[in-house]
Amino acid sequence: MIAMITIAAWLAGMQQTPFPIVQTPSAALVAGGVSAATEDPLTRPIGGSRAAEWLAPVPPERIFGNSYLVGFAGLSVALIDTGDGLVLVDGALPQSAAAVLANVRALGFDPKDIKFILSTEPHWDHAGGLAALARDTGATVVASKRGVEGLRTGKHASDDPQLAYGGSWPAVTTPIRIMKDSEVLPLGTARITARATPGHTMGSMSWSWQACEGKTCKEIVFAASLNPVSADDYRFSSAAGAPFVAGFARSYRTMDRLKCDMLITAHPDNAGDGRFSAKTAACRAYAERSRQALAKRLAAEEADATK
């Protein structure tokens, strides 16, 4: 009952499926226009039927200034041109790595100029492609300390609310840089700030930077998921769930105070209609949708406990 209420509440504003289904690769498998790689363990398809929806192809586009989208209809991947190298944000699925790099080339950039790949969370749908992208570009992956633990193992953390779903993704074996909350990554003209946003995972990290066109500048936020979803038997109201509830509260405060002219979310529809949101107070609205979904989840758990 709780799981049904939770999913229904969240889907009103944010669509996300929590569980991976690992597929055996075959030449016939195509996910969102991305051909399965049968010989490469780092691009072996995962995600089952949901991958085709998430990886539906959309053209790469510049959203403002030095900032671009090179991902898919259901999974965001951002590109920042710093003038002294490129930065990717998120890695989508293992089988989508080639398509991400093709989108980078379509914009006129060389993937070998990618210096860093920023990770939002240690989950298969956003971190699955990191290993292949890092290997193929030579870029350094960047994540929170807790995030790195999941990226190195390719598995959910032992305290992850979604642990019981199981599944795995390619572990990152290339260099990873750990960044702390509010730490700044400088590269070229860009100053990219790490924004700890725990709750969905304890290692979740959002990223913000300024993009300019002439004298007009905007603050862009690539937000990690704030979806209060879990495996069916997990309880956010339990002692194990308390740190996650506190993490969500911290993330809401962060999102509420961030200057946020443009919002990109890990799943585009979490931001609203389209691939990003340029609405006033988009980050606050994003946090509020999660706040309401979590409140409904906790209320459902309380009601279920009294039966």
Task: Describe the overall structure.
The chain has a 7-stranded mixed β-sheet. The chain has a 5-stranded mixed β-sheet with strand order 10-11-12-13-14, with no helix packed on it. It has a two-stranded antiparallel ribbon with strand order 1-2. Mean pLDDT is 90; it is low at 1-37. The chain has one domain (2-305): Metallo-beta-lactamase, Chain A (4-Layer Sandwich), CATH 3.60.15.10. The chain has 307 residues and is of the alpha/beta class. Helix 1 (2-11) packs antiparallel against helix 8 (282-305) and helix 7 (242-257) runs antiparallel to helix 8. Strand 10 and strand 11 (190-196) form a beta hairpin. The chain has 8 helices and 14 strands. It starts with a helix and ends with a helix. It is globular, with a radius of gyration of 18 Å.
Separate helix tally: 8
The CATH architecture term is: 4-Layer Sandwich
Structural category: alpha/beta
Counting structural domains, the number is 1
Low-confidence stretches: 1-37
What Rg do the Cα atoms give? 18 Å
Q: Largest sheet, order of strands side by side?
A: 3-4-5-6-7-8-9
CATH topology: Metallo-beta-lactamase, Chain A
Q: Name the overall outline.
A: globular
Provide the CATH superfamily: Ribonuclease Z/Hydroxyacylglutathione hydrolase-like
DSSP helix fraction: 25-40%
Question: How many strand elements?
Answer: 14
Q: Give the biggest beta sheet.
A: 7 strands, mixed
CATH class: Alpha Beta
Distance from first to last alpha carbon: 12 Å
pLDDT averaged residue by residue: 90
H and E order = HEEHEEEEHEHHEHEEEEEHEH
